[in-house]
Amino acid sequence: MSDNDAPARRSRLTVLAGPTAVGKGSVSADIRAHHPEIWISVSATTRAPRPGEVHGVHYWFVSEAEFDRMVECDELLEWAVVHGAARYGTPRAPVDEALAAGRMSLLEIDLQGARQVHAVMPEAFMVFLAPPSWEELVRRLEGRGTERADERDRRLATARVELAAETEFDVTVVNTEIHDAAEELVALMVGHLGRS
């Protein structure tokens, strides 16, 4: 095996991040529905499920004590406190297994997590999901109706900071329409592998 073969195999990991309410979950759900060949990580979180969210599908909903145990045992590839409230993290073993099996793999995570993954896996393909405009991002967050006013204001303040991180990524996908953004992301993932 040449030195160039290992990075090509490991570059099957794509990290999708972007500001709160930009539609990361919706884009990854569209990919899950239309591209079963792509493995998508399921994050662990200490927050309560939102209406319609399913344990093990949307997130692994865990207790604070279980999250502490996962951190202590180094079972998370990355983790962070998000919006000053709940903790989120990516279980390490499923990512390693998917990459070892040669599957194209997608992590849909927040900006803090994306930076942590990039630090330990600099070969990962980093994709920033951006809103068409600030006004549209505000509309989407308010339209979800899943947060109290104080939480929504905190998320908007976080989103302003997160938008400034776009230049840290390899490429940007603008989420004007969910399915179009998902298909653009898949095409970029396939193209990235071709260039590795």
Question: Can you put this structure into words, describing what you see?
Answer:
The protein is α/β, with parallel strands linked by helices and 196 residues long. Helices cover 45% and strands 18% of the residues. It has one domain: 3-Layer(aba) Sandwich (Rossmann fold). Strand 5 and strand 6 form a beta hairpin. The relative contact order is 0.22.
Helix-strand blueprint:
Blueprint: H1 5-10, E1 13-17, H2 24-34, E2 39-40, E3 44-45, E4 60-61, H3 64-72, E5 76-81, E6 87-91, H4 92-100, E7 105-108, H5 111-120, E8 125-130, H6 134-144, H7 149-163, E9 171-174, H8 178-195
Helix pairs in contact: 2-8
Essential attributes:
alpha/beta, single chain, Rossmann fold, 4-stranded mixed sheet, 196 residues, 18% strand, 5-stranded parallel sheet
Q: Element order, helices and strands?
A: HEHEEEHEEHEHEHHEH
Classify the oligomer. single chain
Helix content: 40-55%
CATH superfamily: P-loop containing nucleotide triphosphate hydrolases
- The CATH C-level class name: Alpha Beta
Protein structure class = alpha/beta
How much strand? 15-25%
Distinct helical segment count: 8
Kindly report how far apart the N and C termini lie.
Answer: 15 Å
Rounded to an integer in angstroms, the radius of gyration calculated over CA atoms is 16 Å
Tell me which CATH architecture applies here. Answer: 3-Layer(aba) Sandwich
Beta strand count: 9
Provide the spatial order of strands within the biggest beta sheet.
Answer: 2-7-1-8-9
Q: Determine the CATH topology.
A: Rossmann fold
Shape: globular
| Major beta sheet summary | 5 strands, parallel
